[in-house]
Amino acid sequence: MDQWKDKVAVVTGASSGIGRAVAFALLEQGMRVAVCARRLEKIETIGEEAGHPERFFAKRVDLRNEGEVHSFFADVKNHWQPVHVLINNAGLGYAGTLDSQPVSEWREMLELNVITLSLCTQVALTQMSEHDQDSHIVHLGSMSGHRVPAKSNGMYAASKYAVRALTESLRQELHETGRPVRVSSISPGLVETGFAERYSGSAEAAKKTYRALHCLQSEDIASAVLYVLSQPAHVQVHDVLIRPKNQAL
Q1: What is the pLDDT along the chain (249 residues), one digit of tens a residue?
Q2: In degrees to the nearest 10, what's the CA dihedral of 6, 1, 129, 238?
Q3: DSSP assigned state of 64
């Protein structure tokens, strides 16, 4: 990770779970880390907690607001310099069947998991072109982008399949232009975060899910992100599929 020391990383959705763990890990590796979330109080102390407040920047941002996304990246650039690493972590899911799930939940999943990810990628690439140095974009996907599990997962899985397609599309674009930017996807299975409670709509259902097997932890996914970033410049890790040992599908 020495290649990234003092370079600028943006982590979206860092208020809890994987995003928070990734922010801590990148700070520990010597990067300057900017994070955003809708609730500033959830992210503003990360730098102090990590012991590196001088290398931390936080801003309240609604990633579904295009203007706020552009403003956030501009503030990061003005605070330090153009971004080198983007971790597209922000995302959500709702359980529901295609014959009955509210359209509003479809829109929210597609907007955050697909459109926002693409917008942040576009803005970051613009900044990366300004310094033309080695850079990296990491999408947080899901095992649900590689297979469709049963039980009300259709639209969420569709959004994560889209992340897979976007990863490959961007890889091809970057190859064509010869830019020094790599793109990778991390596809976790069951991780013990707040995701299951929101997905199922029930704290009890989430606990039952997490008690069913020894789940991954947010720090496991942060380690996978570090692995991807730490490869030499000629190595591009396209996708990391990571699931608990006892997860069947």
Answers
A1: 999 999 999 999 999 999 999 999 999 999 999 999 999 999 999 999 999 999 999 999 999 999 999 999 999 999 999 999 999 999 999 988 999 999 999 999 999 999 999 999 999 999 999 999 999 999 999 999 999 887 668 999 999 999 999 999 999 999 999 999 999 999 999 888 766 666 656 667 656 666 777 889 999 999 999 999 999 999 999 999 999 998 877
A2: -150
A3: T
Point out the catalytic residue in the list 94, 156, 161, 199. Answer: 156
The two structure tokens encoding residue 94: 């709702």
Annotated catalytic, 156?
Answer: yes
CA distance 73 to 91: 18
| pTM beyond 0.90 | yes
Could you tell me which residues are beta bridge partners of residue 8? 32
Residue 176: C-alpha distances to residues 14, 86, 166, 167, 184 (Å): 32, 21, 15, 14, 17
DSSP string for residues in 81-120: -S-SEEEE---------TTTS-HHHHHHHHIIIIIIHHHH
Quick one: CA dihedral 106, 38, 140, 179, positive or negative?
A: positive
The CA angle 207-24-224, to the nearest 5 degrees, is 70
Query: 2-242 adopts what CATH topology?
Result: Rossmann fold (3.40.50)
